[in-house]
Task: structure prediction
Amino acid sequence: MTDQSENPVISAPSSPAANPDRSRWTALYVLCAGVLMIVLDATVVNVALPSIQTDLDFSDSSLAWVVNSYLIAFGGLLLLSGRLGDLISRRDVFLVGLTVFTISSLLCGFAQSDVMLVAFRFLAGVGGALTAAVVLGMIVTMFPEPSEQAKAIGVYAFVASAGGSVGLLAGGVLTQLLSWHWIFFINIPIGIATGYYSLRHLERDRGLGFAHGADILGAVLITSSLMLGVFTIVEPAAKDGWTDPTTLLCSLGSFLLLVGFIIRESTTGNPLIPLRIFRSRNVSGANAVQALTVAGMFGMFFLGVLYIQKVLGYDALETGLAFLPTTLVMGTLSVKFSEPLIMRFGARKCLIPGLVLIAAGLALFTRVPVDGSYLVDVLPSTLLLGTGVGVSFPSLMTLAMSGATKEDAGLASGLVNTTAQVGGAIGLAVLATIAATRTEDLTAPGKIPTAEALTSGYHVAFLVAVGLVLAALVVAFVVLEPAKAPEGDEGPDGMTEPELEAEVGTTL
Result:
């Protein structure tokens, strides 16, 4: 926990009289609407890919770029976007990103060729990064009081974590009832409405100015490193494996760019991304926990979908509905119970049991049979995962923002989103490769049927996913700092342990 004597409490600017307290919560819902639109777009496309392939004549090899082009831009620009919010204005960066994303969605819906759609999806990733990167930083400055901040982060955590499963349902509904074009067109009214209410309810803020971080070389190095890294994960690593020469070469290139960035930021007097943010054990530890946890959880939202569709035979709409209980449980816990739990027990003590529940949910999926039943074999796992995410992710985000100063809030927000995206991409590539390799080995001539081979591949991948979440649990125990005072005892200023831990958020 950051020492408050070294990092004094800095309250967010008070709202003008014309902007009553209720307006802050309206602003929160506006921000979450923008985030939901961005998060949905990452998964809503998946169930529409067959229709897109047929209409635009995508080859099997190029179809993945409908998803990959978005992920490369989104994951590569999050960290830079967060820092731009600190330097320019988080509100302005959010609005620019929202505008770019809305326009690119319109262009995607009208795309007439595979090249056009891939290019417009890349542009959507740029807008998504600008929009999403600054939101968490804006939330913690709008809600400096610990209990309010915990509740607000709970709402944000629900939107950010449940958006993926909602996207599967929305994609299935829109594609089956209308056409694939509407998975993009639906963003237009949402984007316009969000922009309108953003102008009305988001308080204008002033950034630090480029004099505090206009490091062009640093920006080029970190953006290139992240984009090349995400590209490596979603393209050569996913297709040819991690030992393929192209994968190794791209990985080395991404690593060298990252090393160059670290050297640059540690030696320049005006760094784009001050490395001091990583001195906080809670900031560094929480982001490491998130990367490992999201990497493991992607197994559920990707391989779990494949199991339900390819083994159990569900269609796109039924698959989306199958994950609805997960979303409902996440929402109930994140929105209604995360704030009192964090205030009562502290963020770290809520995080750890949540991670245990996530690991348990993934462990149950290592035993799903070929002739499985949704109620018996799938639903218990999804409910455990939903409970674990609903308990752990608001706490995780609170801890990830806890050691950042007000000036670095945008950077910390971008870092949270970056670790989630990169962790998810790595997890997806690793788990999908493991499952595919196992399945191919078992489907050789004279061996077991396809459905059994697929299920066995999923079993192995989910076992690795459990290992990733258990690794996150170890990091949470070893790295994350507990509150200073024993539970129930009073610390500085007469605060109890949970209040001390939550109070860290007010250092923003």
Summary: Residues 28 and 139 are 7 Å apart (CA to CA).
